[in-house]
Design goal:
13 helices; nine-stranded mixed β-sheet; eight-stranded mixed β-sheet; 526 residues
């Protein structure tokens, strides 16, 4: 029988994110995928700003930015007449927010980049390997695997994580209810196709089109940067017995767009889709955990599903490692406590957007056309709506790992740690997120007074200590806030200490703590 620390089931964006996070920490993790290769499917095609920050930390954001595009040009049609042309992706990077826009990029490119990064870290995907079953005990999980050639293998791991999608075998084996609804009246045919004469991008902008019919029908085209392809999606009725094919999509294109002279070609992926709004009420069952679509499935509106799964993995990774290294296993309970309310809120938000977009209520349609669309043409409104779905504001202020011993300030315990442009003592300009990048904790001190009771030598190696506007001392990285971007983002008073988790959230704020107080807020495995 083979053994490993962790087994991850499913090599989608969620499973690959978790595998990379574990690999960079030296964890022996096995990533299994039932398919024989990564599928070339666009599916989720937008990375939110917070996910881009996650991928910055994991070392892949530059490659993703090269292969995607954030500036968008969206054209809307009503009954084949052009209704509005809306720009998107208009926000400029700020010192506190380096990636303010959604990056449009097909999902298959995201997973390809993540697979390459996993390989660089010494990991790999075990393709053609299916989880046939497992039994979980108090100290580990025994899994049975079946390979594509019919071979059988038993693997014993300390933790098993199901990242295996909406039809999760891990979730079903546990018997965890996937509560919610399947919207039979909201069904779609999808495909990745070429549309001759229609360029999905140009002049640094990726293009999208959406045709809405008075009968409630919908057909959309979304450009897939760098591929020459479009993702096409067409609504179908609850009683339509239609299978995804190029001929069917061509007929719907002709009927809904009026461009009967245009022929769709070269499909590389065809599928159908029914809107499901479901989630579990249990992310953890002993040594088995769920993440991504295995725990929650979302409507496509708002681009939330894949991004929520990526952040599930990012929240879970450092906690798994801490427990593997001796921290109290109860630390993993915080994964559910923090992520389940987030998933519920995101699910509600994406469902609300879908209900507005697909509403056949004439009053709602009037409000969208006469009020919302004119507002969306305004750059400030456009940027504000983008920020609403960016997941930058996701935080854990009420979470079990959060403690705040300071009043006031803009960034509080449980919040995402914003970026800032700062200067090292060498006068080299760096970002605060450069200091946070990596699998360590960061103790950020504001001024020398924050360290007056602190014995740096008593802190473990897994903690990086940095001081803003302080003086040099052994074991402390000195940073200067000459442009005051840190001050504007944090509004932290001199003497404040912020303990920042490996996933970039503030765990604790205190005034001039000693090392014993810092140690009390670290997992024992650090």
């Amino acid at each position: 029988m083979s053994t490993a620390d962790v087994m991850i089931v499913g090599a989608g964006p969620t499973g690959l994110t978790l595998a990379i996070d574990l690999a960079r920490r030296g964890v022996d993790a096995v990533l299994v995928e039932a398919e024989t290769e990564l599928p070339r499917q666009s599916r989720g095609k937008g990375l939110q700003p917070r996910s881009l920050e996650v991928f910055d930390d994991l070392g892949v954001v530059d490659t993703l930015l090269e292969q995607g595009e954030w500036r968008q040009d969206i054209t809307l049609y009503a009954d084949q007449r052009r209704l509005a042309r809306l720009p998107a992706g208009l926000a400029e990077p700020r010192p506190d927010l380096p990636y303010p826009n959604i990056l449009m990029i097909p999902q298959w490119r995201i997973t390809a980049v993540l697979e390459e990064r996993l390989g660089e870290l010494g990991g790999k995907i075990r393709f053609g390997t299916r989880l046939a079953g497992f039994t979980a005990g108090s100290d580990g999980v025994r899994a049975e695997l079946v390979t594509a050639d019919g071979g059988h293998e038993e693997l014993e791991v300390r933790y098993l994580v199901g990242c295996d999608g909406g039809r999760s075998a891990v979730r079903r084996t546990l018997g965890i209810e996937f509560a919610g609804v399947s919207r039979e009246h909201q069904r779609y045919l999808l495909g990745d196709v070429t549309v001759p004469g229609w360029d999905p991008e140009g002049s640094g902008v990726v293009r999208s089109h959406a045709w809405m019919g008075r009968d409630g029908s919908f057909l959309g085209l979304a450009g897939l940067p760098g591929t020459g392809q479009w993702q096409i999606g067409a609504s179908i009725g609850p009683d339509d017995d239609l299978e995804p094919s190029l001929d069917v999509l061509q007929r719907l294109w002709d009927e809904r767009t009026g461009h009967t002279d245009v022929r769709l070609t070269d499909p590389t992926w065809l599928s159908n889709f029914k809107v499901n709004v479901r989630m579990v009420d249990e992310y953890r069952h002993g040594r088995v955990l769920l993440a991504g679509d295995a725990a929650h499935v979302h409507p496509p509106t708002g681009g939330q599903g894949m991004n929520t799964g990526i952040q599930d993995a990012y929240n879970l990774g450092w906690k798994l490692v801490a427990c593997l290294r001796g921290a109290d296993d109860a630390l993993l309970d915080s994964y559910q406590a923090e992520r389940l309310p987030i998933a519920r809120g995101v699910l509600e938000k994406s469902t609300d957007i879908l209900d507005v977009v697909t509403s056949r209520n004439p009053l709602v349609a009037f409000a969208v056309r006469r009020i919302l669309l004119p507002l969306l043409r305004r750059p400030a409104v456009n940027r504000a709506l983008t920020s609403r779905v960016s997941q930058i504001d996701v935080g854990y202020r009420s979470g079990p790992l959060t403690e705040d011993g300071v009043t006031g300030g803009r960034v509080r315990a449980g919040d995402r740690a914003p970026d800032a442009l700062i200067d090292a003592v060498s006068n080299e300009s760096v970002r605060l997120h450069d200091v946070l990048r990596g699998p360590h904790w960061t103790l950020l001190l504001v001024g020398d007074s924050a360290a007056r009771h602190l014995d740096i030598t008593a802190l473990p190696d897994g903690v990086t200590v940095a001081v803003i506007a302080g003086s040099a001392r052994p074991g402390v990285r000195v940073l200067q806030d000459r442009d005051r971007t840190f001050h504007r983002a944090y509004r932290a008073a001199s003497g404040t200490a912020l303990l920042i988790r490996p996933d970039g959230y503030v765990a604790w704020r205190a005034e001039a703590p000693d090392h014993r107080a810092v140690l009390a807020h670290l997992p024992s495995g650090e």
